[in-house]
Specification:
There is one protein chain. By secondary structure, the chain is α+β, with helices and mostly antiparallel strands. It is built from twelve helices and 19 strands. The protein has three domains: 14-98, Rossmann fold, CATH 3.40.50; 127-179, Dna Ligase, domain 1, CATH 3.30.1490.20; 184-382, ATP-grasp fold, B domain (D-amino Acid Aminotransferase, Chain A, domain 1, 2-Layer Sandwich), CATH 3.30.470. It has helices spanning 22-30, 63-71, 85-93, 102-108, 111-120, 134-140, 164-170, 228-245, 279-282, 287-296, 329-333, 364-377; strands at 14-18, 37-42, 55-57, 75-78, 128-131, 144-148, 158-161, 176-179, 184-194, 200-202, 206-211, 216-222, 249-258, 263-269, 309-315, 324-327, 338-342, 353-360, 379-382. The strands form four sheets. Strands 9, 10, 11, 12, 13, 14, 15, 17 and 18 form a nine-stranded antiparallel sheet that branches. Strands 3-2-1-4 form a four-stranded parallel sheet, with helices on both faces. It has a four-stranded antiparallel sheet with strand order 5-8-6-7, with helices on both faces. β9 and β10 form a beta hairpin. α1 packs across α10 and α3 (85-93) runs antiparallel to α4 (102-108). It binds adenosine-5'-diphosphate (ADP). Adenosine-5'-diphosphate binds at residues 126, 145, 147, 152-155, 157-158, 179, 181-182, 184, 187, 210, 254, 266-267.
C-alpha cells in the first residue's frame, strides 16, 4: 500500500483518488515531483492510473474500499463524478479530509441543483427549468436543450429537442434540465484552483471547438481570441463560482459567449478537465499538479501561459472495438512542439478518449493549424474491426 513519501513538503504526502482514469493517471504522473504519492480506487482492473500508482480494485461506492483508500491517504479526492456524494459524506463523517467536499460534489453532479446554485449565487445562467414530464417541456417551450440531470458527460446526456416526440424520447434518461437554446458565438473555458485557505489561481481563458458528429469538444485553443474585457468577465465569474461553492481543488468552468456579447456560465467540473490538458506543456504549473497542490494545502503554482497551445482528444474511430491500434501517432510524436499523451487503455470503443495531443508554438494560429493537420492524420482503430 501507499507509504508516506519521505520528503513531503508539509506533512500531507499521500493522496487517495476515487477513480483511476486518465485524470488520476496524469495526477499520479505529476505527484512525485512535488513530494506526493498517490493511491487510486477504480472498479476496472489495470485502470489507466495503475501504471503510475497502486490501485484498489472496487466499486466507487464500496464503503470498505473507500475506507481502505482513506487509511492509505492524508486527503481523498476524485477524478470522476460517478462516486456518490453520500459515500464522500460518510468519509467526511469519519474525519477524513475530502476535497472537493461531498457538498460541492452533490451540487455539481446534479445539473439542475448546479444551475439553481449558480443562479442563486448571482451568476449569469440562461433560462432553465427542471422537467420530468413532456408537458413540462412543452410549458418551458420547444425547441430547447434537454440535459439528463445526472450521469451525463461529454455531451452524451445533452440533446437539442424540437418536437414533443423527441422530448418524450429523451426523457427516458430520467429527470432532466431544460435550457433555452443559447445563441453561441464561442465556447470558452477557464481552469481555476482554490485551496483550503481560499486562495485562488486562475488560468488563461481558452476556446473550445465543438465536434457535432461526436458531440464532444475536440480542440482547445489557448489563449482564446476574445477581448481582455470578456476574458476578465470569465475570470470574475469563475472566482465568484468557486468562492460560492467554498470549493477546494481545481475546477473547469465552461462559458458561452453569445453573439450579443453576453458571457453565460454553462457548467462546472470539480476536477481537472479536458479544457485544461494544454496546461501540462503550455503553463508554468499543470492543472494536475495544481489540483494536488490545492487539495494538499501546498501553495498554488503560477498559471502563466508560457506558449500558445492547441490540444485535442484522441478518440476511438466511430467503428473501433477491441485492442487499440494507433495510426499516424509516430509522425505526430516526431514533430517538434507536439506532445502525445496516451492513457494506457487496453480497449478502444467508438469515441472513447484514448489520449490527447497538445501542440505548442510561438503563435496561436500556428499551434491550431498544426493541431488540425495532426487530427486528420491520426486514427485509432480496433483489433475487432
Ligand atoms: P456535458 O456536461 O455533457 O459536456 P454541456 O452542458 O457542456 O454537457 O453541453 C454539451 C454541448 O452542448 C455544449 O458544449 C454546447 O455546444 C451544447 N449546449 C449545451 N447547452 C446549450 C444551450 N443551452 N444552448 C446551446 N447549446 C448548448
Amino acid at each position: 500500500m501507499n507509504t508516506p513519501p519521505p520528503h513531503s513538503i508539509h506533512g500531507i504526502g499521500r493522496i487517495g483518488i476515487v477513480g483511476g482514469g486518465q485524470l488520476a493517471r496524469m495526477m499520479a504522473e505529476a505527484a512525485p515531483a512535488i513530494g506526493l504519492s498517490i493511491t487510486v480506487l477504480d472498479p476496472a482492473p489495470n485502470a489507466p492510473a495503475s501504471d503510475f500508482a497502486p490501485q484498489i480494485v472496487a466499486a466507487y461506492d464500496n464503503l470498505e474500499a473507500l475506507q481502505a483508500l482513506a487509511a492509505a491517504s492524508d486527503v481523498v479526492t476524485i477524478d470522476i463524478e460517478a462516486v456518490s456524494a453520500a459515500s464522500l459524506a460518510a468519509l467526511e463523517a469519519a474525519n477524513v479530509r475530502v476535497a472537493p467536499s461531498s457538498n460541492v460534489l452533490g451540487i455539481i453532479q446534479d445539473k439542475l441543483l448546479q444551475k439553481e446554485f449558480l443562479s442563486a449565487a448571482g451568476l449569469p445562467v440562461g433560462r432553465y427549468a427542471g422537467v420530468d414530464k413532456v408537458e413540462e417541456v412543452i410549458a418551458f417551450g420547444l425547441p430547447c436543450i434537454l440535459k439528463a440531470r445526472r450521469h451525463g458527460y461529454d455531451g452524451r446526456g445533452v440533446k437539442l429537442v424540437r418536437t414533443t416526440a423527441e422530448a418524450s424520447e429523451f426523457l427516458r434518461h430520467g429527470p432532466c434540465l431544460a435550457e433555452e437554446i443559447v445563441d453561441i458565438k464561442r465556447e470558452l473555458a477557464v481552469m481555476i484552483a482554490r485551496n483550503t485557505a481560499g486562495e485562488t489561481a486562475l488560468y488563461p481563458v481558452v476556446e473550445a471547438e465543438f465536434d457535432p458528429a461526436a458531440n464532444i469538444l475536440n480542440t482547445i485553443i489557448a489563449p482564446a481570441l476574445v477581448s481582455p474585457e470578456i476574458a476578465a468577465r470569465c475570470g470574475e465569474q469563475a472566482m465568484q463560482a468557486v468562492a460560492a461553492l467554498d470549493g477546494v481543488g481545481i475546477f473547469g468552468i465552461e462559458f458561452f459567449l453569445t453573439h450579443g456579447g453576453e458571457v453565460i456560465l454553462n457548467e462546472i467540473s470539480p476536477r481537472p478537465h479536458n479544457s485544461g490538458h494544454y496546461t501540462i506543456e503550455a503553463c508554468a504549473t499543470s492543472q494536475f499538479e495544481q489540483h494536488l497542490r490545492a487539495v494538499s494545502g501546498l501553495p498554488l503554482g503560477a498559471t502563466t501561459l508560457v506558449h500558445p497551445a492547441a490540444s485535442f482528444n484522441l478518440l476511438g474511430a466511430p467503428d473501433a472495438h477491441g485492442e487499440p491500434a494507433y495510426r499516424g501517432l509516430d509522425t505526430a510524436a516526431a514533430s517538434p512542439g507536439v506532445a502525445v499523451h496516451l492513457y494506457g487503455k487496453h480497449r478502444v470503443s467508438p469515441y472513447r478518449k484514448m489520449g490527447h495531443v497538445t501542440v505548442t508554438a510561438s503563435e496561436r494560429s500556428e499551434a491550431l493549424q498544426k493541431a488540425n493537420e495532426l487530427q486528420q492524420l491520426i486514427r485509432i482503430e480496433g483489433s475487432e474491426q
